[in-house]
Protein 1
Amino acid sequence: MLPEKPIGKESMADSQHKTVPVLPWMRNPVDIEVFDDCPLGLVPRLDPRLVEALRKMDIQSLFPVQVAMWQETIGPGAFERDICVNSPTGSGKTLAYALPIVQILSTRKIRCLRALVVLPTRDLAIQVKEVFAAIAPAVGLSVGVAVGQSSIADEVSKLVEQPRLDTFSAFDPEDWPPELQSSVDILIATPGRLMDHINTTKGFSLEHLCYLVVDETDRLLREAYQSWLPTVIQLACMKSLAGYKEDVIFPSMFNSLTTIRRTGVERGFKGKSYPRLVKMIMSATLTQDPSKLSQLDLHHPLLLTSGDRRYKLPEKLESYKLICESKLKPLYLVALLQDLRGEKSIVFTSSVESTHRLSKLLNLFGELPCKVSEYSSLQHQSVRSKRLKAFREGKIEVLIASDAMTRGMDVEGVRNVINYDMPTYVKAFVHRAGRTARAGNKGRCFTLLRKDETKRFRKILSKAGKMVCNAHVLPANSIERLRPVYSTALEKLKQYVDSRKGKKHGIRFKSAEADVK
């Protein structure tokens, strides 16, 4: 059974960071960790059709963050407040918001765009769409995606329904011309393509939007993306009813209004004279900056967080460090990959350019026990999708990537995360490390460090709540044995750079040695 709703307390993280302005509602969070896993059969009011769909996904119980969200949406909370979730990567945040949204929308048999999920990258949006697509059809809901993976015309054909002209009377002015209608109940979108549809797609409307999910909130608030957020809020939260002359408004209990549109969409919220857009804010590293959070226009927000720290790593994550000279980092990486013997791993670099260079160099080595591939924004979306599919299926054991490409990415069975370049900030470390040890599984995070980086790395670990980081010892003579192979690989890389004249994909190479440092 679900535990009673816990009373939050001021977090230790807040007391440790007095210089950071903290909004009052963030000082009294609900602690997700007081909840236990809940078997599907014990989740109150969960639609049996969704139970069956979840079991087909090999899900037998809900994780704590999902239980907490269910209580605040379907349970006693009943979506009376906007919800902000600060929970570790891999804890199950996607299903935490997808499940209650699908459950609630399924109770009204209408077809219009009522839920919008916005994510910063195409890859993450497609991943989230797959979660919704696995459960929504079970209750008769349709899910669409707007990410720019295909042409906008193709997306329009799937998002907007062209009405049959023979169903309308040419003699009734109220029925002509027939209105375009949404083909989907739920839309997963990236902000740029979302704005394209708002500005150019006929029939694309947010007037019936009930739920807005902002996933990876920190990144979406940091980058403007054509002012997508104020635009969505403005279109979905029209406080004035002057524009709805055709609506019929019925007063209810003297303090609320129920609006029935010609399309049959009922809108009424307790204590509100206009439809309230419910917002769900999701992050593993939720900002505390009031100026950024104010952009969301939150309604009496409730914070759900894990424990008493602002940043939290997966519970079963082991952290290791390797101290090495800068010019020998590629050798240490190769020796580490040999030591890991083909385990599924993600290697993080500091930039897209470094990702491309390192991937090229590693593929010039002749002694790797695994297949290594680049995963980068330099590649076309279709190429990235194929690489990610091959990685999921185990045909590629190691992906080389930058932070921007793998934030939020969920790949089952990632055993290791390797920081080839030390993360600059604690948020980057948390998101990188969170690619492994997901959903209660074990995982390891290795970080290659120069001696002058060790002090700064300790501070990052401390902020992330990781006080233990053991040194990883590589097999004896493994570095020396690789030196001849490394020299050959460097020469081949230099020839590659010269042949491309340093201009491929707009990347300028300074030297072969610089390419791998």
Note: Residues 1-19, 239-274, 504-517 have pLDDT under 50 and may be disordered.
Protein 2
Amino acid sequence: MKPLAFIAMPFGTKPGPDGRAIDFDAIRAQLLGPALEAAGYRDFRADEERRAGDIRVDMFQQLLVADLVVVDLTIDNPNVWYELGVRHALRARGAVLVQGPRPANPFDVYSDRKLVYHLKDGAPDPAFLAEDLKDLVAMLEATRDASSARVVSPVYELLDHLREPAWRELLLAQRNEFSERQERWQDRVEIARRQGRPGDLLVLADETPTQALRVEARKTAGDALLKLGQPRFALEQYDAALALDPAHLACRQKRVVALGRAGQVEEARQAARRLTQDHPRDAECWSLAGRIAKEDWVRRWRAAGEDASAWRAAAAAGRALLEDAIEPYHQAFVADPSHHYSGINSLTLHLLLRQLGGEVPQVVLDNLTGGVLWAALSAQKRDRQDYWARASFAELCLLVNPLEAVQREYGSAVAAADQDWFALDSTRQTLVMLRDLGFRPTETAAALAIVERELARLAPPFVPRQVLLFSGHMVDAPDRKVPRFPAEQVPRAQAAIEQALDALGAGAGDLALTQGAAGGDLLFAEACAARGVRVQLLQPLPEPQFIAESVLRSSGGEQWRMRYLALKAGLADAPRHAPQELGAPPTGVDVWERGNLWLLYTALAQGFDRLRCILLWDGGGGDGPGGTRHMKEAVEQRTGQVTWLDTRTLFRA
């Protein structure tokens, strides 16, 4: 999705500084608009908005949320100056000043960098237009690529402690086109998040209305991927968000978690250290530093072998690492005594340190016990369904209370989890650590049994052994002038696809993704289904339209439609359709390219190393956007695991 630019300029023809008329519509059409398009922006000018309603509402909203504002100061137009003032007051960056020749620059922005373009007879000078376009495009690109920490507004330059409003605070009270579009997009994101569909989230993240939403979308996608156990892909999302907003605290924090889970321990440790330096009173930052150190300690003693006695000996030998984990958790709880997560971790690790031979004063344990009790119970008072507050209290009972209390509180915590498999599995991992170190064996075993019983009742997320992604030619339409996939070549294509699947060992436990078009898609899906592969069809159009355009148009279209319906009837998962699942594509987004990215993102969300792409392709360009070439290029940006069935040789054999 292209970033949004707002153009603040006079409308129509106005007298210039020397009294001669200037055609600002020509400047917009010949210079500003083409430059923004070349720099990768989509532009908005209030007078071009045709929707019914108050033009000021749409103007204000776009002015505030646009990624970039281009301001033409050729003449002293009150509306333009007003719009520049509003932007400078509420946004610290993202304003580009341009002007035609004028005898003097306004004092307030005298020192600001501007692009001065050439005029002739009140319109862009043809002799300089190419040069002006080139210079303006360069200026727009430099502004786009500049650090988000670079302040442009003189208001924010002069007032060092002034902070921009959060983007949500810039949504007008009166409903408008942007807020309605934003709400529809936000609803789709929330549905995808709740359903655990990171592929959907990644497509939606590409389609955000403005940069402010892109940060939030990337974080949401990263959180979903992290929850699904894909830290490397999650890390990409947090890095993308931080490229837009390097100071975004939540993304910086989640990035630390992703680095740790991806095995990049030193990078995670350094990132956590920077967070505690930048935010010394933030409990979550200190807690993350403790988490990285704790995971490193556990990783090291587990590497000692498979025997519990070896683990305990290695854990005791690594007490210094354990103490490194305790300190930041303790700092977090001191910074925020309501932060029960850091408190319970500090208490648990202190007790393990004592069990492994370390010295821990009883007063420290007593103080922590009382603090965690207050923090966890207070959190439960605020929200009775807060699973993590209940889990912290249950763990506290495990540490210090009798067996009956442990069983009661873990039962309550499991009920509050509301069938969240990932949350329960996180609790299970803590209990397994305590079990393997021999901590209160009877109580730990009882708690673990309760959690594992609930996990066994729930269906764990489907994690495929490999993901088979297919893209390829449709069978030629009857009126196709240059043959590409003639109907008589279907048996050869089918045999080649089956051979490729057999070479990959396709079978039960795998996931197959394709659209379901007549030809390669259906041959692939049928062969996968016959081998017990779970098949999911992701289609860029509503099903009736998809069948009309991608099934019935081929030679033997009715026979292909019957094959499609037969395949669909046997699938465990119904086909999914982008307009229904993702909403209508934004203006300028091609539905077929969107469909390819939906397939690819859904595949990658299962793990980069699981992706196997099969292409039935002649190596050429498609009949339009979003063809097999686009899929091949998109896949190769992520992974080189492509099986190419070259129809130029296959159909000549």
Note: The first strand starts at residue 4 and ends at 8.
Protein 3
Amino acid sequence: MGLARPQARRILLGTLFLLVASALGLVYPKVIGDIIDQALHAGDRARIDRIALAMVGVFLVQGVAMALRYYLFTTAGERVVTRLRQDLFQSLLSQEVGFFDERKTGELTNRLSSDTTVLQNTVSVNISMALRNAAQALGGIALLLYTSPVLTALMLAIVPAVAVGAVSYGRKVRGLSKEAQDALAAANEVAEESLSGVRTVRSFAAERHEVERYRSATERAYDVARRRIMQSSYFLAGASSAGYLASAVVLWYGGRLVLDGAMTVGNLTSFLIYSLMVAVALGSLADLWADFMRASGAAERVFELTDRVPAIPASGGERLASVRGHVEFQDVRFAYPTRRDVPVLKGVHLDVAPGEVVAIVGPSGAGKSTIAALLARMYDPQEGRVRLDGRELTGLDPEWLRQQVGTVAQEPMLFASSIADNIRYGRPAASDAEVEAAARAANAHDFVSRFPEGYRTLVGERGVQLSGGQKQRIAIARAVLKDPRLLVLDEATSALDAESEHLVQEALERLMQGRTTLIIAHRLSTVVGADRVVVMEGGQVVQSGDHATLMGQEGLYRRLVERQFVAA
């Protein structure tokens, strides 16, 4: 209802046309009764002509009213669902990163597509049809009472039983519909994983395995849908049989009333047509009830996400007038939300001066990348504090904070758009000249210029049409254009060949100038130039100093470097 409120004027106008169309539709049975009782009985041809001509006018007006009713309700419903999709997507993007650690992408995209499509049918056509059938049923029952209260009471005797059945049926269908949507979401998750990782699937010749996984998931969805359809079949069979039984009783008793002279043939004919109209309307409402129960299950899942309050807000808080780049980690303890019983950081102390370049090294699982994630406030520590220029990060505006942090990862994420658009992602308002300048600073301009489309070249999904070194340089250009005060290089050159590493390293050195930089790396070439090397093991800082100092000490750093030389 809250989503529909902005469309209130359109919905009210549609309701007006709905009432007009329904009222005019109820005129027809009464006219037939009048023709039978008066015009045919009296042999008045002129009266029949007048009635027929009047009905032509009534039907034309009714047709226009029905068209306007359909247009107004359907466009209002489309606008409601469009807004719902927008609100849902905005809510999803505002959630903290830990939320996405616990949810699969396929499940969330299914909420945006499948669940909102179910709601789309409900809030557009189905609501209009429900109101139309309800108006037709109520108006028909009123005219039935006017025509013959006794026959109406006989016909309506079935309503309580059908109503009780509808309530019970609705509860079952709602649960089964929610279960079916969950099963379909699981199938979509399998498809999303298989398609996004198709190169891995192909390299392991696992196509049959993935097809079987998807088949099993869709079969589960089908089984739930079959049970829901079975429940619908039982209810529709019962409701239909009850309706026809009531019609048979009405016809039997009405025929007796005509023979006894208590009712005219015209009135019985009108009554039977009204009964048919009411039965059709009630039958349609029964069908729509099933759809509404399905929509109720989908809405529950959608609103669960739209109403969810993120643990870390997307924006809101203090914005510093200027950033020096002084970073402090004070006794920070942290475990990921999905593994709270596995501590990753165990009392980390780290102080990075403005403009200092600090390399963080250590074995896998030591907590290096977690330091970077906490700096960008992707997560909040369970204990301890992370500060920027003396201000705790929890008091700063997260949106503003992330604008101050530039990240170049080992596997940068590029969007399926042009090279220029991917670079401009760092600053959407940047001009073409600024984009090119950033590309030159990142050693990317030369290879971009060799493409026939230049900066308009499409990179494909996740940048698959570019090499690893080219993707890295595009990511560096994006960071250059963003011009952050804090820079995080997370294994930025570990997957590159020697030539690409040289070009990327050269671009990174330009990017680091004047910025507080954290380098998370294994390769010696990316560490030796750092002002300080911080060595981590088991979630703790075990050594700190420049490269030469640490090489002169017995410890983890020296062992890591020696192993690298042996491997080389």
Note: Residues 5-184+226-306 form a domain with the ABC transporter transmembrane region fold fold (CATH 1.20.1560.10).
Protein 4
Amino acid sequence: MSLPVGRRGHLFAAVGVFVMGCPYAAAQVRPASEPSAPGSIPEPQLDPQSPLAPLPGLGVDWPDLATAPVEPAAVADPATIAGETRYTYRVDGIDDVGGSLLRERFDQLSSLNANHGQPANGAQLDRRAREDATLLTSLLKADGYYDARIATRVEPNGSHPIVILDAEPGTLYRFSGVTLAGVDAAGEKQALLRDAFAVRKGDPVNSDSIVAGQTALTTTITDKGFPFAVVGDPAIVVDRAAKSATLDLAVVPGAERRFGHVVMTSGEKIFDARHVQDIARFVPGHPYDASALVDLRRALIQTGLVSTVRVAPVDGKDPGTVDIAVGIDRAPPRTIAGEIGYGAGEGARAEVSWTHRNLFPPEGGLTLRGVLGTQEQLASVIFRRNNFNGRDRILTASLTASNLTRNAYQARTFGLAASLERQTNIFFQKKWTWSLGGELLASDERDVIVTTGAPRRRTYFIGALPTTLSYDGSDDLLNPSRGFRLSGRFSPELSLEGNVFGYSRVQLDASTYRMVTKGTVLAGRVRLGTIFGAPRDAVAPSRRFYAGGGASVRGYGYQDIGPRDPNNDPIGGRSLAEFSLEARVKTFGNFGVVPFFDGGNIYTGVLPDFSGMRYGAGIGVRYYTNFGPIRIDVGTPVNPVKGDPRVAVYVSLGQAF
């Protein structure tokens, strides 16, 4: 009798039952002198030392030991390890297979590694070595080495024994055939889908490649217009004799669809379907793309008004379309925030605000804000509508009353402002941003006459149309390490103080970032500004340029750089020039140090002439969090003038620029 090789496991049990059930195996051995019972059939007298009689017709197809699973050998003589002792271990034979990832995975899961440095006895080493041998066999099999053998042993190594795992990976199995059944139904896009799977005939039978290919295929097929596509699980058949395998993967693309409409399903009516469509990046009629749904889910969460979001494709009302079903649950819409701080030149201040982010749906928020400080008092009402007729467009209107005291001036201002902007944020950092706005101000301001130092008071009525345009080519909003940024601000303004006159404010900013070594980034910035169309003394003190402080030239007081009046107070100017250089060095953990060197000055002319530059230098500390670095900078003036501080300290969130 002969059984198929593929059923050898069942063969051993069958043979065992047969032998146990045969009369020879079941016979009782009796002494030769014991008589048989009368009338009974004489029992054969057996010699226990004699061989079994031949069994005609019975053949056993023994397993091929070269292909049978190998049990890891035990640690050699663990009884020789007296008591508990610390040990070391190593793995031989895998340096040329699997790459560094195999070693990393083994170290992460290894019992020997997890308990390394702890005392162990012989039995514990035996168990851990067996576990790790089984683990390594599985890891090698996942990399395509189906015939791997692992042996373990212990060798003396001074006072600490060393446990050795000897690996023989064997032959690397490769695919002799890869089939994507059903992909032809994708029509002209089938070639794109085959390329996405990326596993080919002749490739190693590597589980990581298979999973990556399956994931890429699933993502690609849903991103290319097939919302209801089904990608099955890969079926792998290993041929040990040929040292190869075949892979079959079933794909059911379904019908290709185009975007239909947004439909609201279960959940609270925070937004209507029209507003969700404004937020979405897809347009009805465009080919379906699953990545647009992921983007929409993130954008809805980012509004702050939604706690959970459900976004899914459903059959569209129109033929050939797929509607997007959106269900949302409300998040708390109100926020109360407070802030207490102190700044050199800005004094102590406390700020509190109350916000209802959806008082005027959809996303029409109202904020009441108040500031009470030694040099600033403010009250404002702000209306803000997010995602206004488009993604990340912000419509803002504000009414503000403030009293601001600075070394250069005191201004009591009542203002009305509105703006429309395209905003960037840490979730969706954008290359291009812009803003268009308008301001109406009535400001009662006090300063001094430059020639005499005598105090004076003037009232200004100002209308302005500020416009900004920015390009962000950096890799991170709060902590860039490469790239550059450019921004410009242009604000034509009309002023009434005695008579009506006009002028324009222009400011240009540029910064660049370069990683020179791992953990070290060199950063630099330049700022230039000008006011043209009116003399400095005609422009309201609160609208002039100033320099000095944590976001300007560090080491100096806030707005303290530039021309001064007879009382040694700054008076501002019509033009500005600044630069900053710093090295951002990661030290240990989440901490870093930042040596910096800044320079700048304010000029009375329409253009800066770069004379009389004031320089500041110092060092900062950064603590890097998942939302950006916390900054502490300590600077000192390099060439101070009378009245400048010896040391200035600045604290903020994010890098200086």
Note: Residues 1-76 have pLDDT under 50 and may be disordered.
